[in-house]
Task: structure prediction
Amino acid sequence: MKRTMQFLIVLAAVFSLVLSACAPAAAPTPSLAELQATAVAFAQQQVALTAAAMPTATQPPTPTLPPPTPMPQVVVTEAPVMPTLPPIVVPAATKKITSAGGDPCNGNPLSNVTGPHTDLNLKNKSGGQINLYYYLRETAFGCGYGNVYLDNNETTIVSVPVGCYDFFGWITGKTQTSTSGYACFKSNAANSAIIRDGSIQFSN
Result:
């Protein structure tokens, strides 16, 4: 830029001398201050044009972030509901009805029945635990019911009034099953019952 300023000053001086030589009358000579102001204005114009021609710096591209990875969904499963077994209903025994007013044996335990008794040997061969009910039909001394729990292959002896009985049993094993039977027992006899799944074998 310094060389440009010097060139402009020299050019202005030469131009002034030529005009003064050719003109019929002497023109006023510009002062040194005016020449410097003109040269400075020209130099500023050149600097502005040079700056405008320079390429504009571009901004770097904004980095694109990957989309967030979705979180895996957690599926909560409820615990399975175990089926509820139906309640066991004890069936009514087949007994002789002595009056129109109802069954006198209903709800009467065998311990309330008097008269002769006999021993009954019970053997559980059903393959599971059994809940055995035995119902005494009406006799001259009364009627009633008894029950006993036996594990598989268990044997027990119960004292029962002499008479005829209906048997109902519920067996709990791999599956729930039942058994039933009918028999009459005498005194002073070897009374026994072998309980199996679905049947009862009696001897007396």
Helices lie at 2-22, 32-53.
